[in-house]
């Protein structure tokens, strides 16, 4: 996986490509605010807050609602969509109560940063943050 410096370099490269092509862009996944150099990007918009279930959700090929395209958790079948809002995973996205990586706990930016993608947290974001 990429470390913090590699993530920053990747985003700067994307910003340069967008500048050269004369188009704006955006990341499809949130990044933690502590990735160095994000404030210097002029053509690439970087998200810091997870919009899953608050701004969108996904339906997988089997017809199951998931919080986002990164999530493996099936929340409810689309025919039972009214059950989704009571599912613990849906509620953790909606309320922002998903667990944070150890390295992000106690950070003063919590009100405007979700420490990256919550689903990546489950898959080992801590390892990324430490490299």
Shape: globular
Whole-number radius of gyration?
Answer: 16 Å
Cα-to-Cα separation, first versus last residue = 9 Å
- Low-confidence parts, pLDDT < 50 over ≥5 residues? 125-131
Order of the strands making up the biggest sheet: 3-4-5
Tell me, rounded to a whole number, the average pLDDT. Answer: 85
Overall SS class:
alpha+beta
**Share of residues in strands:** 5-15%
Q: Outline the biggest β-sheet.
A: 3 strands, antiparallel
Number of strands: 5
Can you count the helices?
A: 4
The amount of helix comes to: 25-40%
H and E string: HEEEEEHHH
Describe the overall structure.
The protein is 27% helix and 8% strand. The relative contact order is 0.17. Strand 3 and strand 4 form a beta hairpin. It starts with a helix and ends with a helix. The chain has a three-stranded antiparallel beta sheet, with no helix packed on it. It is built from four helices and five strands. The protein has 131 residues and is an alpha+beta fold. Residues 125-131 have low confidence and may be disordered. It has helices at 4-21, 88-95, 118-122, 125-129; strands spanning 25-26, 44-45, 58-59, 64-66, 76-77.
């Amino acid at each position: 996986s990429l470390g913090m410096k590699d993530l920053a370099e990747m985003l700067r490269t994307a910003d340069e490509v967008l500048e050269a092509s004369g188009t704006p862009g955006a990341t499809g996944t949130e990044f933690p605010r502590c990735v160095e150099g994000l404030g210097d990007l002029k053509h690439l918009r970087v998200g810091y807050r997870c919009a899953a279930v608050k701004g969108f959700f996904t339906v997988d090929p089997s017809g199951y609602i998931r919080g986002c395209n990164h999530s493996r958790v099936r929340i409810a079948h689309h025919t039972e969509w009214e059950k989704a809002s009571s599912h613990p995973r849906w509620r953790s996205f909606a309320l922002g109560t998903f667990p944070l990586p150890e390295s992000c706990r106690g950070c003063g930016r919590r009100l405007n940063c979700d420490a990256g993608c919550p689903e990546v947290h489950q898959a080992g974001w801590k390892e990324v943050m430490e490299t």
